[in-house]
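Extended Data, panel c. Modelled sequence:
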Amino acid sequence: MGASSMTGEPMAESIEGLTGDGTAAVVVTHESAATIDDCLSRLRAAAGVSQVRVVDNGSRDDTLAIVQRHAAADPRVHFIGNPDNPGFAVACNQGARDSDAPWLAFVNPDCLVEPDALARLLAHARACEGEVLLGADLVDPSGVRDGAARRNDPDFGAMLRGPLRSGSGRPLDVAADDTRALQEVEAISGALMLLPRVLFERIDGFDEGYRLHVEDLDLCRRARIAGATVAVANDVRVVHVRGVSSRSRPGFSEWHKHRGLWRYFRRFEAPRRNVAVRAGVWLAIWLHWTSRFPAILAANLRTGAS
């Protein structure tokens, strides 16, 4: 990573001069009416955004009506309406294919960007040596930082040590280092990602075998394997409301989180582990799912979800 991007000093070139041919913002929606209007209004006002692609996964609330209103008002906004929910990864890839800008920003419908946020991320990316996959300093509406913005790869060894010793492994979340404008990490949150299209296409985009959750960890790992740097811009703050879509079906979300973790393990860790370790990790993942079941059931009863 270039030294100029790590110091936190102001960049010599203006943001306007670094945006190039622009960024395609890809937004995947599902029952996102609570936040999508604000999200799209902000993206349309954001510097450097040349295209907005909204891919809806079978929403039954007012999401589509809101998106259609934005599309009618702004030719940069296109939307794809899937009749069902094929998953977050599938929809992200659909949005990327429907655009042609040289930079891609994947933005959750509950992320509320400031007018210069994406342009500042792009300025950081262009100042770096080599390819980068960048995230932002995600905070909730009250300003509390989201731990998922900076992450290590999952520690499957900690799973095997069991709940009494799991804390002895590496934490998944990484503390923010505010002394650095760009903080290199192993993984960032899929709530907001910026990367060059050439990198996204070279690593074949998101793995569509993931339905919901863990696909961001997978993308980050493959980007690193391909030689890219994964980092968080600590000086670019973005409000992330969190979980607007998944609140309606907490059981569905938890199931696919555990399923995704097992897929990730099989892809990156299982080939160098023996049969006993592979069996142990499988058991640990699904025992954890079982332990979560009472809370999931209670949440389903509260929301009326199936």
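Residues 2-19 have pLDDT under 50 and may be disordered. This feature is highlighted in the accompanying rendering.
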